[in-house]
Amino acid sequence: MPLKRFFAYVIDYIIITVIASCLSAIPLINTNIYEYRYTTDSILKLNENYLKNDIERDEYQSNYEQYLYEGTKQNLTYTIIKIALLLAYFGYYQYKKGQTIGMKFLKIKVVGIKENPNLKTYLLRIIILDNIIFTVLKTLLVYIMTIDNYYSLYQLLTIIANFINFVTVILIIFSQYKRGIHDILSNTSVVSVD
């Protein structure tokens, strides 16, 4: 069951990422698309220069922090689109059908432990599962913090989000009931269907 859950999530995430990427690549929708592409190209060049030992670690770190800060601002449209798609996709499919496209393909579905889950329950699951709170915080903080302070907090939020993901994976794989943090907090479980 853990592998089915993983692959169902991968299928769903690919669907959402492709749609979000296509929408945010339209200059009419995303007015910062060219600036963002320049920033991502700059990060790639920076990484190449660092790997070739053409620049020192301090210069790399300083430039990387600057690019991350600028890129987070420039990527706002994509972030908003992706969060909206995550909430709509997982909320709609799980609320209306109990399963997403990936779950349907792999014959699993979300059920309530004590009662049928409502829309709020499904939204809570995806907010926790996809660390949406941390994504929103990182995006909001870039507008109110300096680069130095932002990068430190960005790293901390990333560590916390990754820790939550790690604990969720461990729980799904090794716990008796195969429930992740998002399942426990939303009082749901994922089961096989025929």
Based on helices, strands and strand pairing, what is the structural class? mainly alpha
| Whole-number tally of structural domains | 1
Fraction in beta strands: 5-15%
Largest sheet: 2 strands, antiparallel
Oligomer status: single chain
Number of strand elements:
2
Residue windows where pLDDT falls under 50 for at least 5 positions:
none
Q: Please, how many helices?
A: 9
- How do the helices and strands follow one another from N- to C-terminus? HHHHHEHHHHE
In whole angstroms, the N-to-C terminal distance is 14 Å
What sort of overall outline do the alpha carbons produce when their principal axes are compared?
Answer: elongated
Computed over alpha carbons, the radius of gyration is: 19 Å
Arithmetic mean of pLDDT: 95
- Strand arrangement across the biggest beta sheet: 1-2
- Helix percent reads over 70%
How is this structure best described in words?
This protein has 194 residues and is mainly alpha-helical. It has one domain. The protein contains 9 helices and 2 strands; from the N terminus they run αααααβααααβ. It has helices at residues 2-24, 33-51, 57-74, 76-97, 101-105, 119-129, 132-141, 147-174, 181-186, and strands at residues 108-112, 188-192. The protein has a two-stranded antiparallel ribbon with strand order 1-2. It is elongated and about 55 Å long. It starts with a helix and ends with a strand. The model has no long low-confidence stretch (mean pLDDT 95).
